[in-house]
Write a structure and sequence with these properties.
Chain A: This is Potassium-transporting ATPase KdpC subunit. The complex is a heterodimer. Chain A is built from 6 helices and 5 strands; from the N terminus they run H-E-E-H-E-H-H-H-E-E-H. By secondary structure, chain A is mostly helical. In chain A, the strands form 2 sheets. A 3-stranded antiparallel sheet of chain A has the order 3-5-4. In chain A, strands 1-2 form a two-stranded antiparallel ribbon. By secondary structure, chain B is an all-alpha fold. Chain B contains 18 helices and 4 strands. The chains are: A mainly alpha, B mainly alpha.
Chain lengths: ~190, ~575
Amino acid sequence: MKQHILPAIKLTLVCIVVFMVAYPLLIWIAAQAAPARGRGETVVSQNKTVGYRLEGQSFTRDNYFQGRPSAAGYNAAGSTGSNKGPSNPDYLKEVNARIDSFLAHNPGIERADIPSELVTASGSGLDPHISPQAAMVQVKRVAAYRHISEERLKQLVQQYTESPFLGVLGTSVVNVLPLNLALDQLK
Amino acid sequence: MNTEILGISITFILTLLLAIPLGRYIGKVYSEEKNWPDRFLAPLDRLFFKLSGIRPEKEMNWKQHLTALLTINLVWFLFSMFILMNMQWLPLNPDGNPGMSADLAFNTTISFVSNTNLQHYSGETGVSYLGQLVLMLFQFISAGAGMAVCAVVFHAMKERTTDKLGNFYNYFVKSCTRILLPLSIVLALLLVFNGTPMTFQGKSQFISLQGDTVNVSRGPAAAMVAIKQLGTNGGGFFGANSAHPLENPNYFTNMAECASIFLIPVAMVFAMGYVLKKRRLAWTIFGVMTIGCLLFLLPSVYYEMKGNPAITQMGINQQMGSMEGKEVRFGSAATAFWSVVTTVTSNGSVNGVHDSLTPLSGMMAMLGMMVNSFYGGVGVGFLNFYIFIIIAVFISGLMVGRTPEFLGKKIEAKEMKIAVIIALLHPLLILSATALSSHLYAHDPATYAGWLNNPGSHGFSAMLYEYTSSAANNGSNFASLGNNTPYWNITCGIVMLLSRFLPIIGPLAIAGILAKKKYIPQSAGTLKTDTGTFGIMVLAVIFIVAALSFFPALTLGPLAEFFGMK
């Protein structure tokens, strides 16, 4: 062991220099050429930062499209999922309550039309997206509150629907923040 | 075909296709043959050796390899403990996060030194940027150490008689500089340009459309995310790991991160084929691992896409599958795929919440870690598989009445004893630790009420999962478990420590002992180990060991939950 201790210490110091200093520095330098210089892309409206493009934020008002329930309360400095087991009775009660609340706020919508992602919490608590179906099911409510035609809103949702990667891989998504921003500008 | 299924199929196939040339490349690195990136990387290696006073050509026997490995790990342990407990006054702490308590620092240190990356802290609040960078350092060097031991075993398996098995530091440095570093740079760049932050600024603030003030955690994430995926580490920058939109911004990055989980573990098998010039053996092992992986993958994807039966009963639409704990941009298929890939290898990063997986998918994740050798961790995955090969050779030798031989070396009582001890150590550690915790909880549920935040059999599953993950050096968890307490920090720390080093020492000893034995050329009486029949035999041994040891515990956890939900 004695003959190994000195090389071990020296080797560790070299590793610190290369992997802990040089490598992150290299990526940091490259990041200066990346979108937002690697500081996180923000969404700006009327010269004010209103959010981060990739991070969901809380929408609770009926005149906005709402995102997914969040176990983190959309705290972007404390991401977390609910960690509820699929058979946990308290959790299932909570989901039921969310369904009832959704039905109360969205008259004319059937239970079978509610996509489950609108009543289940996301993995990060910061999911910025909902599915196109989850946006469409809210069109009726938003249209009523905003006095805009449902047709017009459906078009808007379609416009903000991002198709799967390369058109065929993965899911279609709608980023809720840009959609709501566009909604605010629609008049 | 459904776009979600297509997405995971393409990810799977592309990764396997990429692993073949990468395996060849790794094989050349360990055989000291020329590779094209040497032009840039060879001077870097020379710098390492010169500054640390190491002579890479000085060969070691297996015991010297072991001493070198354990000594350097001790140095790492002390360094990490010091940093993690003193982050509050050390630099690079713009968010003013506190240092860790001794028990949490012990757990975190063991966790990162042992390549486990179990996290009883949350990235946003539990560590400073300096802490993150130190943990990132361990993601390189703990992976490199595992790969180095694997390279030693490759050389020991050669058809010759020797006790000279190369130089540990040589394999270690080259694993880091020639394999992990270049791949990490590629992945980190890819992430940065897709939106993952790489900044040393602290939190920023904005006012949302609805008028809430929101703080946003950022940091030098991209560099760390890359190596945590590639080195089967799994310790994320943010609390939610790769479910976090900054850590894994879109479907493309998800494919790249997911592929990175098992790219090197698969490539190591082909690297072995290259070093030993035994391509058929490599393909047989690869076949067994892939079949094993698919056996976990298919049910998991099916059950996640089908949705949670309890929510189906509520009469709503589960067209996206079971979405609790999942992100819309990945969907349930890609999350189920990830959950299996990350557990069969010892990665442990997650892109969704494993606690919220439907019962059988949760069980598949646990089974992946219980077997822990379908691809497995970088380096150590092959070592675990090697143990199962030794046992399978012995059993099949007895069955057909031939002397058990593997690659021209006789397997005798001593090697078998080591192999069996190592194979049984894994269930022993998992089950006894789970039993102890269940005993404590059952006898005093009031005192330990903070432990289980899901009732019934799922609560038991959370404890079983925690120790399985610790023993498999995986690091994912059922996060409902209240695990940042001295009890969990210390017990998990001990389990991680024992199950990192004993399963490295065992195969290294076997390979070292076999290498010194007389080489017996193949004859008509030799049991062939590169055939389909032998592959099935290995698969059977794995399932018998795993099923017999773990089935009772799984019955109490995920199986009970599954049948309870019907």
